[in-house]
Every structure is written in structure tokens, then in C-alpha cells.
Amino acid sequence: MDTPAIPLAQRFRGYLPVIVDIETAGFNAKKHALLEIAAVIVELDSNNDLEITERYTTHVVPFKNSELDPAALKFNGIDPYHPFRMAIDEKDALEMLFKPIKLAAKRNNCTRAILVGHNPAFDIAFLNAAIQRTQIKRSPFHPFSTFDTATLGGLAYQQTVLAKIAQAAGLEWDNEKAHSALYDAEQTAQLFCMIVNKWKRLEMLDV
């Protein structure tokens, strides 16, 4: 992509917001497999509104000696060894996602990316564990700072559950598609953009 007309460097203290959703085989980031990851990049348009510009997703092969919790697999509906998943190794998955994120950070004059997620402590824990396992040296993400749409949703729409925030914001919600990493990341990204843009308009009213 070309350099944006309005880089994001000044909007989030030099950070590029990247919405991430991760589907896993359990809750323990060091033991349970990371099975699917999606990243959605947002940037400013010519009106200074935040919008989705890029989407990336991949299925991931369970790392060696990882554990698979049957309850987690039933919840997200993932068969880790289904041949049509077209899953790739964890390191390849991260490198595939990190490349466009680094390019987006560069064109927006940002120092690094910041993970945006719904209850993002879960996602960043699994992301950091995968980075450590694969020994990737230069992650584009801040290692512990995040933006949480559960908190923002509670502020803007009086709801904290992703589906309920989406509905309160007037977005469609498809329960059949939920718990797909890309679907959840896209819905979260739309909410994040709506809340940021809404805040900008409220600030303009105070001028």
C-alpha cells in the first residue's frame, strides 16, 4: 500500500493498532496449541477516520508436544488435524503475519504495533508464548501493552461481551461464524474503529 495521507504515528503515541484474535486448544499459553490466528490492520482515511485496510489469517499446526483440551476444541469447532485446514507451522504463521504489520507500521511512521483484542490478555499471552517458542527475534508488537475492546465497549455501549457490543453498536452478528479467528478479529476491528471515530466526533463538539 502507498503511504497514507494521514499517518497514525501521532494518534496512538507512535503505536499502530492491530486487531488480533487467536483460537487455541485450551487456556494455558505454554501447554496448549495455538490453532488459528488473524490480524486486522486499521489506518486513517482522508477524513481522519479509522478504517480496516488489511486482513490476514492462517491456521496453525499444533506445536510439538502441545496439549489439546477436548472442551476447547468443542467450543471453537476446530479439528486440529483436518486436512482441509491447510495449517502451517507456527513460525511460518507468525512471519507471514508480521511482515505486513511491519510494513504498515513503517508507512504510518509508527515505532511498533500494539495488540487490540477483546480481553487481550489471553491473545497476547499466546502470541508471546509462540514468539518465544519459535525464537523470532523482532516481533512488531509491544510485549505487554494492549487495547481492550471489552473495556471500550463497556464505556461506549454499556456491554462487555463481544456479540452484545456488536449488536448494541448496530453491527450484524452471526453466531455460526463466531469463534473463527478472522470473523472475531474483523468484528472487533469494526468496533474499535467505531469507538475511536465516535470519540473523535465527540471531541469536535467540545471545540
Rounded to an integer, what's the Rg over CA atoms? 17 Å
As a percent range, the share of helical residues equals: 25-40%
Q: What distance separates the N and C termini?
A: 34 Å
Helix and strand run? EEEHHEHEHHH
Assembly type = single chain
Strand order in space, largest sheet: 3-2-1-4-5
Brief rundown of the structure:
With 207 residues, this protein is of the alpha/beta class. It is built from six helices and five strands, in the order βββααβαβααα.
What does this structure look like?
The protein has 207 residues and is α/β, with parallel strands linked by helices. The chain is 39% helix and 22% strand. It has six helices and five strands, in the order βββααβαβααα. It has helices spanning 70-76, 90-107, 121-134, 149-157, 162-168, 181-205; strands at residues 15-24, 34-44, 50-59, 112-117, 141-148. The chain has a five-stranded mixed sheet with strand order 3-2-1-4-5. α4 (149-157) packs across α6 (181-205). The radius of gyration is 17 Å and the shape is globular. The mean pLDDT is 94.
Question: What keywords describe this structure?
Answer:
five-stranded mixed beta sheet; 6 helices; 5 strands; 207 residues; alpha/beta; 39% helix
Chain-wise SSE layout:
Layout: E1 15-24, E2 34-44, E3 50-59, H1 70-76, H2 90-107, E4 112-117, H3 121-134, E5 141-148, H4 149-157, H5 162-168, H6 181-205
Parallel strand pairs: 1-4, 4-5
Antiparallel strand pairs: 1-2, 2-3
